[in-house]
Amino acid sequence: MGFMTEFREFAMKGNVVDLAVGVIIGGAFGKIVDSLVKDIIMPIVGLVFGKLDFSNLYIVLGTVPPGVNNTLADLQKAGVPVLAYGNFITIAVNFIILAFVIFVMIKQINRLRRQPEAAPAAPPPPPEDVVLLREIRDALRRP
Hints:
Elements: H1 3-11, H2 14-48, E1 59-60, H3 72-77, E2 82-83, H4 85-113, H5 128-141
């Protein structure tokens, strides 16, 4: 069996194809969550905290060359070491929202998968002739 044949069999297994679909959908879902955080949630959070834009929160760790604007993009472009903790806050909020959304989705999927377990049905009563035969048997056993 050649290498290409083995690879084709591996790539066509159900789990590998499912994983590929999951990664593609996950990437698209990640972009949706990024937009939700960046375009909707962070502006609201920034408004609550005095119109702060978390992505522009940073601490300059080096010396700023003359003529460089004191903005995160300009400092990074000039090669100044900058601790951009605002980006970390944005990504952390993004992660928390994504984890919560996935938790809710999995919880709903598990709820839909669980079928209410039917109580075991009581066995049908034995026919009348069987009941009579049992009574006769029990009567004959008595001394």
